[in-house]
Design brief:
single chain, alpha/beta, Rossmann fold, 7-stranded parallel sheet
């Protein structure tokens, strides 16, 4: 039996590098998947590819009415909503705080923070109707420290941490668990291509060579952790944060030294 048989999972940003990995994995584990995304062409194509246990709904995560419609679509298509993955996110073009305009600040926080808040708000009643479930908010290692030139993104991801813990306290007695995953540098277009208005990509600033695990992360790495946190195997875990970064935040790893010659 698959871990998510007879369950319905809504993934926001479901057509992106990480989002599509999550959608495919939940589907492979037996779930009905609802692909929430603003890109209707890609979303519909992915749903068509996966078949009758997949449904696309156009979702603007900054719009409360769009969230209401997405939750209604999930319940109408499959009868219930059991899991929400707040995965949608955007990056700001790198700039010092002094050169960051308010419109950029508002846009980034609107999607990354307000979108997560609205998702929890909209999904909680549906998860309660389903007798419980799980919410996972996708944060970032940038939400555990400062990163120059990325103030809007950093601020939003820091705030998602507090939102996750607050929601866990409010919803726990309804058997709704809320956790957060903080990926490091994952090999997706999100970090390998410049953000809108930028000329360099985030990956250009990072070499995995010093990491304890000296490679970039893959979407499947994050997906594996996500599947665990939303499954019954994690039934005693809520309000927790999981860093998945190959050791990025630890600092440079000890390099292998040449073995000393043995004198006999």
């Amino acid at each position: 039996m698959n871990r998510f048989d007879n369950q319905t999972v809504l993934v926001t940003g479901g057509t992106g590098g990480q989002g599509s990995s999550h959608v495919r994995a939940f589907h492979a584990e037996g779930a009905n998947v609802v692909i929430g995304d603003i890109d209707a062409d890609r979303g519909a194509a992915l749903a068509d590819e996966l078949g009758p246990r997949a449904h696309f709904t156009r979702l603007d995560v900054t719009d409360e009415s769009s969230w209401s419609a997405a939750v209604l679509a999930a319940e109408s298509a499959f009868g219930a909503l059991n899991v929400l993955v707040n995965n949608a996110g955007v990056q700001n073009p790198p700039a010092p705080i002094e050169d960051t305009d308010q419109a950029t600040w508002s846009r980034i926080l609107g999607i990354n923070l307000t979108g997560t808040f609205l998702g929890i708000k909209a999904a909680a009643p549906a998860l309660r109707r389903a007798a419980g479930g799980a919410i996972v908010n996708i944060g970032s290692t940038m939400g555990l420290g400062g990163t120059a030139h990325y103030a809007p993104y950093v601020a939003g991801k820091w705030a998602v941490r507090g939102l996750t813990r607050t929601a866990a306290l409010e919803l726990g007695r309804d058997r709704i668990r809320v956790n957060a995953i903080h990926p490091g540098v994952i090999a997706t277009p999100f970090i390998q291509e410049p953000a809108a208005g930028a000329t360099v990509a985030i990956a250009d600033f990072y070499s995995p060579e010093p990491f304890a695990v000296p490679r970039l992360g893959e979407p499947a790495d994050v997906t594996s952790l996500l599947l665990f946190l939303t499954s019954s195997d994690a039934s005693f875990i809520t309000g927790s944060e999981y860093v998945i970064d190959g050791g990025l935040l630890l600092g440079p790893a000890l390099q292998h030294a040449s073995p000393s010659p043995v004198h006999r």
